[in-house]
């Protein structure tokens, strides 16, 4: 949209009013270590705008930020730069909305069945990769996610805005960091406790029963909290009927097509994966499931990054250098073993999972994106978020569609799309400066130069350097 110069003063004045401005926190000295741009008015000129809606890029634009918001945006010839503004000439470069990713973690696998709590380093890495808003897709600590969300919001720590998920709601399991529910009333009590403590999201897991899931969903919805799930004992269709809001890992975790599946019993991940690998995306059974999910407004989260690490022949994931030497070596060994596994189901399952996610989106389903830094390791925050966007393009989406899935769709799911997820006048100035054109070459998504959050520009180089060789410790 182009604005005449006479309108700019009015827009800038409007951007300072309480009606469209979220109050920015006072940033701590520790946070300021990572800031490269902080001025009352910032003007990005000669920039390519990729707004996150899927619309074609707009060339030679001026984007003006003031008070944490986008105050003006339009053709360079039409938008005047206010006197005294800090001006950045971004000729040949692009801006996209800050990534809004909804299956992230502040932990990482550092032993058999055990996850190290890495809130300090991972929050920096997410921000460095262009993530300005995220949901933690499960919590094995209790309070770290909730506390980190508050510390970031208050300006005490650098990181994205965090939708903090409570500890997993699950039945009997083998994780020593995961509680076992004792039935539906216990599930309801857990929802009450953790939302009272400040959790803004809930995650159900593989061994939960239908009764426990129903109780959790009902209590969460009573409190206006959304529920997602990485399920196995409950099928996708059953969960949709019980009112779940979101399902994780595309269709990789679905057990709907296991012929001998027993109610409330997880038949094992392998059984479900075998049926998904052989599934016909054009067949009636899959189309019936699509209709059930879409009719019930269930969003689906694509986490292709974690499944890529299980698939032979795929490139080594980016960002391994930030890990401690021990964790890096641990993943290198895992990667070598995966490469030698010529009979891996993922050789078939990975491309099929991509095709099913594309079919869901093309049918009108809300596909959102995340990375899931779990599994055998190798999924590194920030780096993996960029890789997830690339993998959506590998799955058949256009670069503009992949960017929209990873920005605006996530914001829509979280109910934050009025403020973030796309670039428009009056919205929060969460945006990423990229040294290239990801609309033409999606790999340019890795060329992050500055990450603006509420109009303050963070330096990805400094953020990454602060944790390189240390991720895995804190």
- Highest-level CATH class of the largest domain: Alpha Beta
Instruction: Report strand %.
Output: 15-25%
**DSSP helix count?**
15
Instruction: Give me the count of strands.
Output: 19
Structural class: alpha/beta
Shape: globular
Q: Which ranges are low-confidence, i.e. pLDDT below 50, for 5 or more consecutive residues?
A: 1-20
Instruction: Tell me the count of domains.
Output: 2
Write down the overall mean pLDDT. Answer: 95
Proportion of residues in helical segments:
25-40%
What is the CATH topology classification name of the largest domain?
Answer: TIM Barrel
CATH architecture of the largest domain: Alpha-Beta Barrel
The first-to-last residue Cα distance is 44 Å
C-alpha Rg (nearest Å): 22 Å
CATH superfamily of the largest domain: Metal-dependent hydrolases
